[in-house]
Design a protein that fits this description.
Blueprint lengths: L2 H11 L49 E3 L5 E3 L7 E3 L2 H9 L6 E2 L11 H5 L14 H5 L5 E5 H4 L3 H4 L4 E5 L4 H15 L2 H20 L6 E6 L5 E2 L11 H4 L15 H6 L4 E6 L9 H5 L9 H4 L3 E4 L1 H7 L2 H15 L1
Helix pairs in contact: 1-13, 2-7, 7-8, 8-14, 13-14
């Protein structure tokens, strides 16, 4: 697929370590035994282990060290937080907060703030790739949260004016860890525990009714497309727990052809249409121009599901992932 589309999907997924250059996520299985951060303690395939639903208490703190080893220290609980990555917006909504400013469209989703309330949140000019430092600082934030690979370059310009927290989730456990970290920093510990409990319960229930159907998530902006894999995508990392998902990462330049997808007998196909500016049509409609498309079982049987890319490809927090689980399990029945 065109390199621009591939890169944007990887930025949106927030799961490829190395951003534009290289790398892969850290998909860990939950063994049912939580560690001190409330995340899984041991690695695994993701399909065999059941997710624990117990949640350890979160203690308020002014200093945390996240799972990636990044330490954030604040003089007091942050009230004004600027979000440069949708994971931040997701966590704040889970904690009953709104960002001081954002460059994400996630908040407009009805299960977040909704269009009317989201429109009141100032937008950070410059877009996802190049947010303007002066605009960020104009909101006098106590904390700025961005994607490490993309926004880490802003750290020197923000130093001394505000605290910057670079995040880089590679799995749902990482996302839960970030939720717990921010709940501790803001003092919203009960809200954090509740959000984690809700997500873990959703995932455990989905595992109990795991489908034997073959699922696939594809993304793109035109008839060229990419396949979301558990190693490089947080949402795709959930799928081996709830379905047959035989897709593995092929590295930064590798992908799958329609011929290969046809050979795997995909039963349910989830499609993320990425738009570059103005929407220009659904990816599934463009892929339909290829004669092989109609031969895929999911297409023949009307099991192609166009999903909200703001939630599936960008959210990556517990609320977004909960919505992914709800939509996926409903389609996989």
């Amino acid at each position: 697929m065109p390199r621009t589309a591939l890169r944007v999907r990887r930025w949106a997924a927030i799961a490829v370590l190395g951003g534009l250059l290289a790398g892969c996520g850290t998909g860990k299985a939950d063994t049912g035994k939580a560690d001190a951060a409330g995340a899984a303690a041991a690695p695994g395939s993701g399909a065999a282990a059941r997710t624990a639903t117990d949640v350890r208490p979160i203690e308020a703190a002014t200093r945390i060290t996240d799972a990636k080893g990044v330490t954030v220290s604040l003089p007091k609980p942050p009230e004004k937080i600027v979000c440069l990555v949708a994971l931040c917006d997701d966590i704040l909504v889970e904690l009953g907060m709104s960002p001081a400013a954002t460059n994400s469209q996630l908040l407009a989703h009805p299960d977040f703030l909704g269009k009317e309330k989201a429109a009141r949140v100032p937008a950070v000019p410059g877009g996802f790739l190049s947010p303007e430092v002066e605009a960020i600082l104009s909101h006098r934030p106590d904390l700025v949260i961005g994607l490490e690979d993309t926004h880490g370059k802003l750290a020197p310009a923000l130093k001394g004016a505000t605290a910057f927290w670079p995040v880089q989730p590679g799995s749902w456990q990482d996302s839960v860890g970030y939720l717990r970290n921010l709940a501790a920093l803001t003092g919203r510990t009960e809200q954090g525990e509740k959000a984690e409990k809700t997500f873990r319960t959703r995932l455990a229930r989905a595992e109990e009714t795991r489908s034997d159907r073959t699922a696939l998530i594809v993304f793109g902006s035109d008839e060229n497309f990419g396949v979301a894999t558990p190693e490089t995508d947080v949402a795709a990392g959930l799928f081996p727990k709830i379905s047959h998902y035989p897709w593995k990462s092929r590295g930064i330049d590798g992908s799958y052809s329609l011929e290969e997808i046809l050979a795997r007998d995909v039963d349910v196909l989830f499609v993320e249409t990425l738009s570059f500016g103005a929407p220009d049509g659904r990816l599934s409609d463009k892929l339909a121009k290829n004669p092989l498309w109609s031969r895929i079982p999911a297409v023949r049987n009307g099991k192609v599901v166009e999903v909200d890319s703001e939630v599936w490809a960008k959210g990556r927090g517990t609320r977004s992932l909960g919505l992914v689980l709800d939509e996926a399990t409903a389609a996989l029945r």
